[in-house]
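Second opinion, please. Please look over this fold, written as tokens:

===
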Amino acid sequence: MSVLLVAAASAARRKPDVVAFNASVRVEVDAAGKPVKVEAPADLPEAIRGYIEKRVASWQYQPAKADGAPASAVTYVDVNACAVPANGGYRMGLDFGGNGPRRAGDKPLPPPYYPPQAQISGTEADFVLILDLQADGTARIGMIESNDIRGRGGRTELQQELKRWVKTVRFDLEQVAGRPVPARVRVPVDFSLGRPDRKALRAELQAKALATRECQQASNGDGTKPVAMDSPAVVVTPKAAG
């Protein structure tokens, strides 16, 4: 399924870009697994927000359980969206990207501080953290799943900064029967000195966007269905009508 959204005329004459973006949608589900309230980000244009809410509201969920009995739940559905220029407007495509807890208020996590000793030494690093989310939305490092540290100086400072940074991040947890559900999330953290070429990066992002399923949907007018994820409110594939 896709939808054509008419764009306002622009003074710029350059060819419109493909616009790919991610959105977190808050969904309240009743004890039967039916969505009863769907809220896409308020800062999206009204037509796009309405389209996303309508699509997400059409998906069914396995009922969450509290003490073995079906219960209402709140989950955050991650959707990948794409707008492809078409006939003076944009054709939308949407794909299910998973569901679970999200960053507090759906705001980006603040980046960690790059320790001066590591910068002076030219040390760069990539970490993948497994965070244990607490009922109050705070996080703890459950484990460091992987780390790639390139350089000698500042290693200790980088690891100390990760511990400090994790104490500052906050998450919105899923809920079952009105109670928050502790969870685990995987978070990549990058310490890099490089500054990418913006023009080359833009071209790379456009090429990657065109290859995604949601952009192929928008181009072809084809629909997509969600797949199940590990969550108290599991999204299930809708049954075909008829």
Q: What stands out?
A: Residues 1-13, 221-229, 237-242 have pLDDT under 50 and may be disordered. Helices lie at 46-57, 116-120, 155-166, 198-211, 213-220. The longest strand covers residues 73-86. Residues 24 and 78 are 5 Å apart (CA to CA).
